[in-house]
Design a protein that fits this description.
Layout lengths: L1 E10 L2 E11 L4 E5 L6 H8 L7 E6 L2 E2 L4 H7 E4 L11 H11 L4 H14 L15 H13 L5 E5 L7 H14 L4 E5 L3 H7 L2 E6 L2 E6 L1 H8 L3 H13 L1
Parallel strand pairs: 3-8, 3-9, 6-7, 7-8
Antiparallel strand pairs: 1-2, 1-4, 4-5, 9-10
């Protein structure tokens, strides 16, 4: 459902993403790992049509991100690293605004809201303004806007950032529940999260893919924990 082909993006003299290629199928949860500045968020922004690649392209559900960005956006749910929202809006007002943007109307809108509000556990904050929300609630609201149209593909950049342990558990359970029916990419710095939800792992550093495997195989190959595997791979390449 996602097929990246030699994606490359620079910012001035800095090469953020350096010709990466990979495929993700329906039913897979891909963990996108790497040190800070590795190029994870840049790659995800290109897949979500928020950033245009310098070269290369990607296909999402068969649509080219360069030639058919509107069709791509219709089929993805994207949670950015710093998900934008309008502070003066209430949670309910913001979700209705997203429904307007997604052209979800009438009965379908009510069904979407009735499904997503309890799913993301934001009932108690529904009438609060966004500026009054805790970081955890803002993150849950960001997740709600990404899921409200029930997309085929999810691109989630640090989905549990700012959540407490119980909330992290709930989000991981939600990802596992959706995994069979969707194609999901999750960027995270939390290695236990990779083991909890990801069926596959890509480790990226300095804009290049170093490893494409599974968490289980990486631990078996290196005979150590995933944390140690990550350090060995990324530090060896730096050295």
């Amino acid at each position: 459902m996602i097929s990246a082909k030699e994606l490359r993006r620079s910012f001035g003299t800095i090469v953020a993403v350096d010709g990466i290629s990979f495929d993700v199928k329906k039913g897979q949860v891909l963990g996108f790992l790497g040190p800070n500045g590795a190029g994870k968020s840049t790659a995800m922004k290109m897949l979500a049509c928020f950033l245009k690649p310098d070269s290369g392209t990607a296909f999402v559900c068969g649509y080219d991100i360069l030639k058919n960005p509107v069709e791509v956006r219709r089929r993805i749910g994207y949670l950015a690293e710093n998900a934008p929202a309008y502070n003066e809006m209430t949670v309910g007002g913001f979700l209705n605004f997203i429904c307007d943007a997604r052209q979800i109307k009438g009965k379908k809108r009510k069904q979407a809201l009735d499904r997503i509000v309890p799913m993301c556990a934001i009932e108690s904050a529904y009438h609060q303004t966004i500026e009054t929300l805790s970081k955890g609630y803002k993150r849950r609201l960001g997740l709600a806007q990404a899921l409200i149209h029930d997309p085929e593909v999810l691109i989630l950049d640090e989905p549990t950032d700012g959540l407490d342990p119980n909330q992290k558990y709930e989000v991981r359970q939600l990802i596992n529940k959706m995994a069979e029916e969707k194609c999901i990419i999750v960027s995270t710095h939390i290695l236990e999260e990779v083991e909890a939800v990801c069926s596959r792992t890509i480790i990226i550093s300095r804009g290049r893919i170093l490893v494409d495997s599974t968490p289980e195989k990486l631990k078996a190959d290196y005979q150590c924990s995933l944390d140690e595997v990550f350090r060995k791979i990324t530090m060896a390449k730096v050295a």
